[in-house]
Amino acid sequence: MQAAERAAEAERTAWVRDRQYAETKRTELLKLYEEVKEQRDQIVKLGPEGTCPTCKRPLGAEYAAVLALLDSQIEVITGDGKYFRQRLEQLAQPPAKLAEVETARERLQEASRDASARAGELRAHAVESERARAELTAARARAARLERQLGARPVGYDAGRHDAVRAELAKLEPIALEAAALEERARRAETLVQDAEQAEKRLSAGERRVRDLTDAVRAEGFSDAGYRQAKDRYDRALGVLRESELALVEARGELGRAEDEVREVQRREGERAERGRQIAELKGRQRLHNELDRAFSDLRAELNAQMRPEIAELASAFLADLTDGRYDELDLTEDYTVTILEAGVPKPVISGGEEDIANLVLRLAISQMIAERAGQPLSLLVLDEIFGSLDEARRLHVVSLLRRLADRFPQVILITHIEQVREGLDRVIRVDFDPARGTSVVRDDTATLGAADAGVAA
Prior knowledge:
This protein has helices at 2-46, 62-90, 96-151, 159-189, 191-219, 224-322, 352-374, 392-404; strands at residues 329-332, 338-342, 345-346, 381-384, 411-415, 429-434, 439-444, 455-457. By secondary structure, it is mostly helical. Among the domains are: 2-108, Helix hairpin bin (Helix Hairpins), CATH 1.10.287.510; 377-458, P-loop containing nucleotide triphosphate hydrolases (Rossmann fold). It has a three-stranded antiparallel β-sheet with strand order 1-2-3. It has a three-stranded parallel β-sheet with strand order 4-5-8, covered by helices on one side. Strand 4, helix 8 and strand 5 (411-415) form a beta-alpha-beta unit. The longest helix is centred in the middle third of the chain and has 99 residues, at 224-322. The radius of gyration is 58 Å and the shape is rod-shaped. The model is unreliable at 448-457 (pLDDT under 50).
């Protein structure tokens, strides 16, 4: 029964876990579908001449490709959503394996109850067997006594006695014949007298039998009142016996139910002890996680306190280079929000280009600190769409700054849609979409051939 309980619990846990996973995935897909659909609706609303929400430039020829990409994403999300919806419909009802193990568990419980009832019957049979054995012993003793009495009787053949009896019979045979003839005549002549005599004889015999029985009853001390009392006691004892037998059957049933309840209590106590052990283990792990969380929080706060000023100093130097000294200082909050300072005073409003520059110099400062802390230059720096809101002069400043950082970052890759910056790069790799083939095409569009492998590429 315990094995069946564990199997049923394992099947139910697996079913609930699969259903929760399917519900979670479908919820995530619905949310992702809403996000992609919103992006597509926004692109359609803006049209080909609209400005891309990401790179802040007109969509132009990329409009159809962006819409096709978003449509393919929506199609994939819709297909996955249909799959998980069907999966949820499949998991709406408990699986057949779960129903099978639960049915097996119920059959075991029924078999246990039947076995308990059978045990009560067998105990009653054992008591009856003891009584039958006692009666058998008494019967065997009586049979032995009768056999001894039969053995005491005389046995054997007496020839003299046999001859004497035959002689006596020979003498009596004429008399017997005469008596038979007389008896026949008497029956024919005095049928009524004979009937009367027979009746008188039967009456006399009956009277003698009555007297004998009366004498025997008196010898036994019999009385009607005593007989009635004894019969009443017998009837009451018989009734008590019947009630006792019924009570015994009920007690056996109660005993079986009590045994079932005791086993159920023992099982639940075992489960509670196991769950208590699991809870204690989980509490210990929770305390460990809390300690680790506090330790990591303290470490993060300590690292922020140590590194934030240095990152702000490096970013300020990059900011001065990119703005020709207009802004030479910035500040970082605890969550690394950038604030540009003008003459030591936070500038409340900055343009989109200034915001892009602030984010760029922060990334460059963090990258330079990582390289310095590593003790060796990082071989690669990848920057994605950093020229979106910058004017041409600032773009040139950014490229020039990246070239000056070649000692820290030997290879810099820029991902951009701005055509004007290609003249200042060592190598240009262009990725276009080929409508005829339906695939992306990559080609080397380097303006200046023979450039070194290291340097700035886009």
